[in-house]
């Protein structure tokens, strides 16, 4: 159905495909490449059960290798499209297109990607959206370059004009701008009419300065799924408890409180003395499924049940994500959904 106004769709709205970039020896995954490749194979196998996958690879050699991995896992390659483009890393939630539906079709927002505030080299990732447009991945759509730093993981849309985000992240990206100025940029560029700000919430091991997709997510029916911490001895407890209270205070357009779904807290995952960000909020919604992060923790099953309740009618499929959090992200971070109708014929 053609929208009567421009909107940023909610993630649970119909999708054409999921966009990912395959890890390789030229990315930060090099020292643990075999482990993370197994996660990517499981991810693609789960995606193609429900829709198509678009996989970025830097060259024909890696495409051949990835095809071999997927064929071995009996993945339906008829539902996989490869695109050869160079990239710095694989966090396509933050370097991929943020797509609006418009009365005329689609608008591909291409915000400036700075490697999370200049922490990492990102020049090739910053060119990814224009490269995908040039490669003919999308149907004819408006490609709008915006010279303002924003990552997809920093924002949540309910599909009806509300944006959920964190002040910690957006203030870090734009320290000289007021909240009013940042709010105006978000509402104008994302075709929204209100921004809900969270002041609290963070995870150790998170490079993103508190991306919202590690903390709290919109769900259908005026609901929010959030990462809870019930361990009072954990250093996250106080901050996430303050976040929970903020979420309780938020109101829907009708003035009602949101229905809140609390995700369980995984036991600390430590790698070489470094706490990793094992967030269950970093899940991915597909057309008929929810892909849930799994961390080899007893809470994995509890988290899957919470996600099933928050997204009724969708099958929950667990994806092994311990290899991903080694590089400070998880399942949602490495993926970007493409709305239904956006993908061009191969």
TrEMBL record:
Source species, domain of life: Bacteria
UniProt feature coiled coil, ranges: none
Single GO MF annotation: protein-arginine deiminase activity
Any single Pfam family the record assigns to this protein: PAD_porph
Residues of the signal peptide: none
SUPFAM superfamilies in the cross-refs: Pentein (SSF55909)
Biological process according to GO: putrescine biosynthetic process
Keywords: Hydrolase
Gene3D superfamilies: L-arginine/glycine Amidinotransferase, Chain A
Name used for this protein in its record: Agmatine deiminase family protein
Species this chain originates from: Oleiagrimonas citrea
